Amino acid sequence: MTQAAIDSTVPRSASPWRRTWGLVLGWVGFLALWAFVSRFVLDEFILPGPTKVGAAMWEIVVEGQFIDDFAASISKTFMGFGLGALIAVPVGYSMGTSRYWKAFFHDGVVGAGSIPGITYAVLALVVFGTGFLGPVLAVAFISMPFIALSVAEGVEGVDPNLVSMARAFHRSDTQTSRHVVVPSIAPFVFAGVRLAFAIAWKVEALTEVFGSSNGVGFQIRFAFQAFSITNVLAWTLLFIIFMLLIERGLVVLERRVFRWRTWDLTA
Amino acid sequence: MTSTATTTPTPGPQRRGKVRRALTSDWAARVSFYIAVLLGWQLLAWQVERMPAPWETFDFILRELAGASHGGVITGEFWEHFLATLQRFSIGLVVGFVIGVVLGIGIGSLPFIKSLLNDVMLVFLALPAVIWAFLTVMWFGLGWEAPVYTVILSTIPFVAVNVTQGVRAVSPDLHRMSDAFKVPRQRRVRHLMLPALTGYLFTGLRFAVIIGWNAVLLAEWFGSVNGVGWRSRFWYDASRYRGFVGWVIIFIGFIFLVDGLVMRPLQRKAFRWRDGRAGADQAETGEAMIDTIVAAGV
Fold first, then answer.
1. Of A2, A114, A209, the CB nearest to B255
2. pLDDT averaged over chain B?
3. Comparing C-alpha atoms, which of B263, B206, B217, B243 is closest to residue A119?
4. Span B28-32, mean pLDDT?
5. How far apart (Å, rounded) are the C-alpha atoms in residues A244 and B38?
6. Chain A contacts of B208, Cβ < 8 Å?
7. Which of A29, A126, A264, B32 is deepest in the core (most CB within 10 A)?
8. In this complex, do A195 and B168 lie within 8 Å of one another by their Cβ atoms?
9. Per-residue pLDDT, B280
10. Band of the pLDDT at B36, cuts 50, 70, 90?
11. Do B128 and A192 touch (CB under 8 A)?
């Protein structure tokens, strides 16, 4: 969502050349400010400068241990995601087709957005302990409402005229769903998945912070307990960069797959 | 005898239709959702030893609220912790909101600042609140500062992004028309900028409330000596899970009430001019609803 929110507000008038300059200048300015504050305003220990954090990031990457933690975090995120989608698709479908189920799930789906993330993390810990099931189910729970809502929206958006035309021309049910229903639902589902992902990985990391024996969240917690501000920042930034790249990749993929649409959900 | 016979007639087709309509009404569907949740919770409590049953948890909440004994020397301390958290939350929210609005207006109205901060903002939006909690706890130690600063730092980017969108939502045609008719700046702000911005301000405030509440709880969990987050952790560390789940219900209940009864109606009202009456009803599924859960407090 963050990506989409930013994308839609990019000034259309600014030339790409000026935008690139602004971007570079923005980062240079930000890093310079960070370095200045850490050296002259605060203390290197309170706020380590960008070079120190960068060196720590480099060390984490070179040491190679990060691959295990990243792999653990990402596989938990995707497993939870898959599980969430498995439950959310039928829920969303019934919400889109029946008034009763829409009302039934309404409060749960709308309320889910305002439940603090800490709830998922600590309840997963209480119910499942520090194993790997906790983060997976926390991700499944947080991603369900997004995916369900997108599916419901997609189902409601299926053009009934197209469906009755397919019937009139004696197309089979499989043909109708393959060529009419699925293509009109798919973009909504994809948009929902992209939105859910932006939240899901944060909840995954948070759950690992509270109780886990591996993963990026575990490393952040470890650095916090060792009182190493440098390492907290290094692990966090590495993880954020990685996840923003995946989100960016999802947007690119979405634009490519749904190029045939006249409208764009990524904007 | 005959009177009872007349008041409870054999269920004719009309009567059955009525019962059926009542059972399938939206209201009944929503009630059955809550019943299903309670049943699911009870099932979970049977399966998982650490999970307390609903009635145990509600008994705990009542004791905590009334200041009664929890079966020992420990007594309920609801108000002390709740008010401490509420105070930190409100201070952080106000400061974070004001800074976010100023930043958002700056980014929205000056394209240069926009291109400078576009990417940096993306990273700040992606930063989970727990990182701010860790950093502020390491910076300020245990006390009131860490929760307040965590709320401020984690709400600013979300408010700023919404206000930026609001500033950019003002139609450039109307700006040009105002130029042509030489509308004074004051009237332009009053009749052009403010109406366009109001809805986005409320959306930003609503996101800030949701995100800030999660942030204050996290910071108190890791670095405080009282407050809702600390009290939850107190029960968790004591392995008294009914106390812990009781507090989870309390802090979810609080944000549900604030969001459902105050923030969401305000947001809808502020956007009424844009969505219209039909729009407000349509928003029940649709993009607007997804938009409202996008903020999810993480």
1. A114
2. 81
3. B217
4. 88
5. 37
6. none
7. A126
8. no
9. 44
10. very high
11. no
Chain B stretch 180-219, residues whose beta carbon is closer than 8 A to a beta carbon of chain A: 210, 213-214, 217-218
Q: Indicate the residue of B111, B118, B256 with minimum beta-carbon distance to A111.
A: B256
Nearest CB among A126, A152, A227 relative to B244 is that of: A126
Q: Are A220 and B131 in contact (CB < 8 Å)?
A: yes
Please report, for chain A, the start and end positions of each structural domain, with discontinuous segments joined by +: 48-257
> What is the band of B4 on the pLDDT scale with cuts at 50, 70, 90?
very low
User: What mean pLDDT value characterizes chain A?
Assistant: 82
Residues 6+ apart with CB under 8 A from B113: B106, B107
pLDDT digits (tens, 9 = 90+) for B248-278: 999 989 988 888 888 878 877 777 766 654 4
Could you please state the CATH topology (level 3) that the domain comprising B78-293 is classified under. MetI-like fold (1.10.3720)
- Residue range B72-101: average pLDDT? 88
User: Which of B135, B163, B218, B290 to mutate to test binding with chain A, by most A CBs within 10 Å of its CB?
Assistant: B290
> How far is Cα B129 from Cα B136, in angstroms, rounded to an integer?
11
Which burial class, exposed, middle or buried, applies to B113 when counting CB atoms under 10 A from its CB (0-12, 13-18, 19+)?
Answer: middle
Amino acid of residue B16: R
Q: Could you tell me which chain B residue has the CA closest to the CA of A200?
A: B298
Please compute the mean of the pLDDT values over residues A61-82 and round it to a whole number. Answer: 86
Residue A153 to residue B138, Cβ atoms within 8 A: no
Which residues make beta-bridge pairs with B69?
B75
Q: B214 vs A116: CB contact, 8 Å cut-off?
A: yes
Distance CA B43, CA B174 (A): 59
Question: Best of A73, A98, A115 to disrupt the B interface by mutation (most B CBs within 10 Å)?
Answer: A115
Nearest to B228 by CA among B85, B89, B57: B85
pTM for the complete prediction? Answer: 0.82
Nearest CA in chain B to A11: B111
Which residue of B30, B118, B127 is in closest CB contact with A104?
B30
SS3 B147: helix
ipTM rounded to 2 decimals: 0.81
How many Å apart are CA B124 and CA A240, to the nearest integer? Answer: 10
pLDDT digits (tens, 9 = 90+) for B198-256: 888 888 898 899 899 999 999 999 888 888 888 888 888 888 888 889 999 999 899 88
* Domain boundaries along the sequence of chain B: 10-51, 78-293
| Contacts (Cβ under 8 Å, ≥6 apart) of B118 | A6, A10, A22, A23, A26
d(CA A103, CA B33): 9
H/E element, A116: none
Q: Which of B120, B105, B126, B164 is closest to A24 using CA atoms?
A: B120
Chain B positions touching A107 (Cβ under 8 A) are 30, 33-34
Pick the CATH number of A48-257 from 1.10.3720.10, 3.40.30.10, 1.10.10.10, 1.20.810.10: 1.10.3720.10
CA distances from A18 to A264, B26, B112 (A): 25, 54, 9
